[in-house]
Amino acid sequence: MELADYIRILRKRWILITGTVVIAVVIAGAATALMSPQYKATTQVFVSTSTDNSSASDLSAGNTFTSQRVKSYAQAVTTTSVLQPVIKTLDLPYTVSELAAKVSANAPLNTVILEISATDTDPTRAAAIANAVGETLPKIISDVEKPNAGGTSPVKISTLEAASVPTSPDSPNAKLNLALGLLLGLAIGVGIAILMEVLDTKVRNTRDVEAITDAAMVGGIPMSESKADPGLVVQNDPRSPLSEAFRGLRTNLEFVVAAHPKSVIVTSAMASEGKTTIASNLAIAISQSGSQVLVIDADLRRPRLSEAFGIEGAVGLTDVLIGNADLEDVVQPWGATGNIEVLPSGQIPPNPSELLGGNQMRELINAVEAKYDLVIFDCAPLLPVTDTAVLSKMVGGAVLVGAAGKTHKAQFSAAIKTLHAVGSHLFGVVLTMLPTKGFDAYTYSQYGHYGSYGDIVEPDPSPAADAEK
C-alpha cells in the first residue's frame, strides 16, 4: 500500500482509532488511580581514600583506587550485610529481599559520589531507610577494606547530603502514564484499522475493482434510501440520484459497446448481487434515448425478469429454443414509448446449459441483433452454473455486476477469469449497493446533493389556476 492508502484507512477508520485511544487512556488513568503512591528519598555520600603522605603520585593513585571501588560499593548497598542492620535499627516490616527491591545506588560517571535511594509508600520511612543505609554502608566497607596487617581502612565514606522527607510521590507519574496510554492506544487502533483493511475480503469500492481487473468501471449504483431493491427506478422516479446513476451507466456502456455486436449479457459472480435490477433499468434508460431494446431473461434457473417488469412469464425463451413458439408470439412490449420489448424465460428446463449453448440460441441471437438496436440478456451467476459462460461466447460482450460490501474479491476475480477463459469480451464492471456516504461512496451517489438542477415545474391543474389565466 502507498501513503495515500494509509491516509485513507486512517480517515475511514477514525472512529475505531479514536475509540481505542480513549479506552487506552481511560485504562491508563484507572491503573494510575489504583496504584499506591511511592515516595523516593536520596542521600549522597562521598568516597575518598586517605594516604600517609600527600604527594601528587599518592593522591593520583588514591583517586584511581576510589574511582574503581565506588561501583563495587554501589552494588554492596543491597547486600544482606548492609540491609540487615537497617531492618533491625528501623524495625522495618520487610525481609532483606523485599528491602533490596526498594533500595538502589548509583555512581555518576567520573565521580566518587554515591547516590543511595530508597522508595516506600511512607515518605518518612523512605527518608529514614536512605539515611540508615548511608550510615551503615561506611561501617561495612571499613571492615571489608581494613588492611590485613591491622590498622584503619584507607577508604573513607562521608555523608554529603542527607535524605529529606519527600513531599510529592515519585510514582505513579500520571502524565507519563496517560501519555503512554495515548500512544499505545493510537498504535493499537492504527494496527487494527490496517489489519481490518488487509483482511477485508469483500469488494467495497472502485479501488478494489481496479486491484482485481483492468476492465473499465462503467457504472456505480448507490444503495437506495430504503436499502431494498429499487425496482424500475428509472421509470418510477426518473429524477432520483439512482436514476441518474443508471443513465451514467447507459452513457458509458454505449461507448464500449459501439464497436461490438449489439448484444450484451448482464451477470454476476453469485446470486442476489443486483444483475436483474441492472439489466431492467439499463434497458429503460437506453430506450429513453430512442433506441429499440430487447431484454431477454436468460436465467433459466431462477428467472426474475418477468416479475421485475410485471408481465406474464409462463411462455418465453425456452419455448422459442425448443421450437414450440415463434419469437414474435412470445415477445411482450413494455412501456408507453414502445421502445422496450421483453422476452421472459418461459418454463424452467431440465437442461439450461444445453439450450443456451445450442444452434437454436445462436440463430436467435443473430435474428434479434438484426432487429433491435441493443439486446440485453439477464443471465444466471457465473460461478454456481456454466449457463452464462456458454452463452457469453455468442454475444458481443458481458457486463459483470458486483455488490459492494457483499461480493467477495476471490469470487469476483474467479468470475472475470471464467469470462476470459471462454473468450468472452468483458465490457466493464458495475458495482451496486454502493454507500451514499463515507469514503467508499461513488460519484453519482452525491448527485442529489446539488439540489433541483433542471427540475421541471408541473402546471397547476386546479380550476383556480385556469381562472387566473
Give start-end ranges of low-pLDDT stretches.
444-469
Taken together, the total number of domains comes to 3
| Secondary-structure arrangement, i.e. CATH architecture of the largest domain | 3-Layer(aba) Sandwich
Strand order of the largest sheet: 5-12-11-6-10-7-9-8
- Give the helix tally: 19
Domain AAA: 274-391
Subcellular location: Cell inner membrane
Family: Belongs to the CpsD/CapB family. Belongs to the etk/wzc family.
Transmembrane segments: 14-35, 178-199
Question: How is the secondary structure organized here?
Answer:
Layout: H1 3-12, H2 14-34, E1 39-49, H3 56-76, H4 80-90, H5 96-102, E2 103-106, E3 113-120, H6 123-144, E4 155-161, H7 174-199, H8 206-212, E5 217-222, H9 233-236, H10 241-257, E6 263-268, H11 275-287, E7 293-298, H12 305-309, H13 317-321, H14 327-330, E8 332-334, E9 340-343, H15 352-356, H16 359-371, E10 374-379, H17 387-392, E11 397-403, H18 409-421, E12 426-434, H19 463-468
Parallel strand pairs: 5-12, 6-10, 6-11, 7-9, 7-10, 11-12
Antiparallel strand pairs: 1-3, 1-4, 2-3, 8-9
Helix pairs in contact: 2-7, 4-5, 4-6, 10-11
Task: Describe the protein's architecture and organization.
The protein has 469 residues and is of the alpha/beta class. It folds into 3 domains: 3-35 and 173-198, no CATH class; 39-161, Alpha-Beta Plaits, CATH 3.30.70.1130; 203-450, 3-Layer(aba) Sandwich (Rossmann fold). The protein has 19 helices and 12 strands. The chain has helices spanning 3-12, 14-34, 56-76, 80-90, 96-102, 123-144, 174-199, 206-212, 233-236, 241-257, 275-287, 305-309, 317-321, 327-330, 352-356, 359-371, 387-392, 409-421, 463-468; strands at residues 39-49, 103-106, 113-120, 155-161, 217-222, 263-268, 293-298, 332-334, 340-343, 374-379, 397-403, 426-434. An 8-stranded mixed beta sheet has the order 5-12-11-6-10-7-9-8, sandwiched between helices. Strands 2-3-1-4 form a 4-stranded antiparallel beta sheet. The longest helix is centred in the middle third of the chain and has 26 residues, at 174-199. The protein starts with a helix and ends with a helix. The model is unreliable at 444-469 (pLDDT under 50).
